[in-house]
Design brief:
Strands 1-2 form a two-stranded antiparallel ribbon. Helices cover 54% and strands 5% of the residues. Strand 1 and strand 2 form a beta hairpin.
Length: 168
């Protein structure tokens, strides 16, 4: 795997550092999927799990969409892969392709970046209806880092199972 990730600044401010850590984790997910065919990206981890790299990409597109567009930006939009709000639907990449999943993910990441950059500060809030609470952009960014870090761990195992590639 070619590693083109840019590490976070060692002496950056809070916002710059948090933004860079999130982008680093986004790049890690993309790197873990590098050079694989659609069929390989749809390869399951181990029974009975149905987890796939393509499913992770689709799931993280939904997560980006929800936290940035729906929660922070207050957009009244449905999930991409479920009209009834079922986040698990995104994990089913069995009929998906790299182009479809990565296209959606990259689109949502770009929306997320624009929303974060336009926000006056990390103290900007949005409403998270599942929690019934207002949350700060700071919490959203940190939650996203957590979400990517956890799923990148899954991606490590998935990639190793596909072609033996390890690292990062």
């Amino acid at each position: 795997m070619q590693d083109d990730r840019i590490g976070p600044p060692l002496l950056g401010g809070e916002r710059e550092t948090v933004r860079a850590f999130l982008d680093y984790h986004r790049a890690t997910l993309a790197m873990k999927c590098q050079g694989l065919s659609d069929e390989e990206l749809r390869q399951r981890s181990m029974p009975p799990s149905t987890l796939t790299l393509l499913g992770l990409v689709r799931h993280l597109a939904e997560v980006e969409r929800t936290w940035f567009r729906r929660v922070i930006n207050g957009e009244d939009i449905p999930l991409r892969w479920s009209a009834d709000g079922d986040f698990q639907a995104a994990y089913d990449g069995s009929a998906s392709t790299r182009a479809e999943a990565f296209g959606a993910w990259q689109e949502e990441v770009e929306h997320a970046r624009r929303i974060e950059q336009a926000a006056e500060s990390l103290d900007v809030t949005g409403y998270q209806p599942r929690w019934g609470e207002h949350v700060s952009l700071r919490l959203v960014l940190l939650h996203m880092i957590h979400e990517y870090a956890r799923h990148n761990g899954h991606a490590d195992f998935l990639r190793e199972g596909i072609d033996g590639e390890v690292g990062a």
